[in-house]
Every structure is written in C-alpha cells, then in structure tokens.
Amino acid sequence: MLKYILPLVLFSVLAVFLALGLNLHPSEIPSPLIGKPAPAFSAPKLQATARDDGSVAIDREPMRTPEEKLSTADLKGKVWLFNVWASWCASCRSEHPILNQLARQKAAIIVGLNYKDEPEAALGWLAQLGNPYDVSIMDQDGRIGIDWGVYGVPETFIIDKQGVVRYKHTGPVTPDDVQQVFLPLITTLQAEN
Amino acid sequence: MKYLSIIFLLVLSGSAYAAGVSPQFANPEQQEAYETLTSELRCLVCQNQTIADSNAELAADLRRQVYEMLQQGKSKQDIAQFMTDRYGDFVLYNPPFKLKTGVLWLGPVAFLLIGLVVVFLFVRRKKAESTMHAHAEHGNENAEKLAKIRSLLEKGDPS
Predict the structure, then answer these.
(1) With contacts defined as CB-CB under 8 Å, which chain A residues touch B88?
(2) Which tens digit of pLDDT belongs to each residue from B11-53?
(3) Cβ atoms within 10 A of the Cβ of A48, count?
(4) With a CB-CB cutoff of 8 Å, which residues 155-174 of chain A face chain B?
(5) For A14-65, what is each residue's pLDDT tens digit?
C-alpha cells in the first residue's frame, strides 16, 4: 500500500514547494530600514532657476542658498512618501499616473529622489507627464540611493512624523497598492503624534 | 582585414576588462581588502553576481563606496556593516548564522541526514530480505537432500 501512497505524497510535497516558489519574489529584498530613522540627506532640489539675464539654468553644483536644498530635518513632523525615480526608468513611466492621482488626494507630502539622472531630462519628463512631487531632490552620483538601500528604480518609502521609515515598496506602484496599503497606512500615520 | 580583426579584439578586450579594473591603493593590505570585499558583496540588480564581477551601474557605485571607505581607513567589518545596514544580509554572499538564516545553513545538513537515514533503512531491508531468501533456499535444498538420502537408505543403492 505504502508503495502506491509514497509517490503521491512526494509529488504533493514537491507540488506545494513549487507552487510557493512561483509566488516568491526574489527580486524584492526586505529593507533593513523599516522601523529605523530615515537616512539623513541634504540635497539640491530639482528645479530650474531664473538667471539675471532672463535665461533659465539648472543648477548642478552644490546649492548656494538653503532654500535651494531640502534636508530630512525639513520634513520632521510630516508624513511623507519618498519615491525614487528617473527619466531613464521605464517602469517609472507606468507608475507615474498613479502617483499623479495620489498627489491630487493630498494624503501626504510626496518627495521625489531623482536618481542618477540628467536634470534637464528629468525636468522635461515632469513637464510632459505632470509633476506629482511636492519637491524632488537630485542624486546624480547615487549616494543618497546607497544610503537608502536603493537597488532598483522605482522604489517608494513611507516615513512617519518622527522621521522613521515605516514601509518600503519595490517596483512600480499599482492602484491596488495605493488603495490597500498606502492610503490606510498614511491615514494611521497622520493620526499619530 | 587583419587590422579590422585587431580593432575588433581590442574593442572586446576593453569591455571584458571594465568590471575587473581595480583602483590603485597605497598599500597591499588595502588592495587585498578591496578585492575580498568586492567579491563577497552581492550586486543587488543582477543578484547572482558579485559587485566585482558586475558591470551594472549600482555595482560600480558600490565599488566606489568600498574604495572610498577603505581610503578613509575603515575596516572590512565596518564596510560589511555599512552595506548590511542598508541592503540587509542579502548583500553578503556569506550570510551570518542567525535565526533567520538558520534554514539556509542547516538545510543542507538536514537533507544529508534524511538521505543517510533513507539509505541506511533501504540497505538494511535489502540485506534482511536477501538473507531470508538465502535461508529459505538453503532450507529447501537441505530438505531435498535429506529426502534423497532417506530414500537411498530405505531402498538401498540401486547401482
């Protein structure tokens, strides 16, 4: 009897393991940052500045005035989304309309990290597709990215009022993610002190 | 044609060399630390390559990070810690032994033990079967011989 049942049992065990394996996402690496203070940055904003002669320039150099910079300290006491994006990133394009829609709901501040991008291309991208970001900062050499453990674009973090990272999403955000995870979490975090 | 092929080979050699270029260090210890670290850190974009092997941009950035930290006099442990703080244990090709990675480390041993037990049981059963078989065969043979002897004794040798 065992002779007939054993292969069936082995097959079932194998089938269960394979089925679980199919639903794994090995490219999604759990972030060790969850529950830890958000890595500090102080970075130039992605923006075009008007020059005295009337032309428009994009600053690449370390910013001269504090208004041209954004740092994590500026965001204390606020719930914010930190979205890593780039104009060269194809899946950012697919999540962009969803971010635009989320921005219209004004649930939380959306900060963009323009990762390893050309500022001209990035600004052109925002002009063409709409700008969901309250502010974007530039990370041309990818150092802020390393501090945040960024390994694929797009990535989205949610940070609470205390400046603690509470959630990380890897890959493009879908409407389901927004409805089922982002908005409920943001509501909870907004209610915290 | 000859020149073309030389140019072609030169172009190829350039790309093959790109990931392997190692920057200059003041002392051989740092050089060695750099080479060990970059071959023990995983490139997270291309997951099955180390950052020393990979041509991905992130791998180049992480190599630069390792280089700069070594120049600042950071130890190997400091740099490995820096990386795991940001990317988790997954960034290490040689993950530390702890509760979460226990299955990873003990899994192969467990499977080996299961295999050995199965082989042991299988061999023992086979052995028991074959000796029983042998006994049974011998028994039959003996019985036949005995019967023959008996009949010979009773009837006497016909020859």
Answers:
(1) 29-32, 149
(2) 555 444 445 556 788 788 888 899 999 998 988 887 788 998 8
(3) 14
(4) none
(5) 999 999 888 887 777 778 899 999 999 988 888 876 566 655 566 555 555 6
State the DSSP code for B53: T
Domain B18-96 in CATH 1.10.10.10? The answer is: no
Considering the entire predicted model, what is its pTM? 0.73
Contact residues on chain A for B58, CB-CB shorter than 8 A: 142, 151
Tell me whether residues A29 and B58 touch, CB distance under 8 A.
Answer: no
CB atoms within 10 A of CB B102: 10
What ipTM does the predicted assembly reach? 0.79
φ/ψ region of B64 (left if φ > 0, alpha if ψ in -120 to 50, else beta) reads alpha
State how far residue B7 is from chain A, nearest Cα, in angstroms. Answer: 31
With beta carbons under 8 A apart, name residues in chain B contacting A143. 61
In a domain, A82, yes or no: yes
Cα separation, A113 vs A82, in Å, equals 7
Residue A14 lies in a domain: no
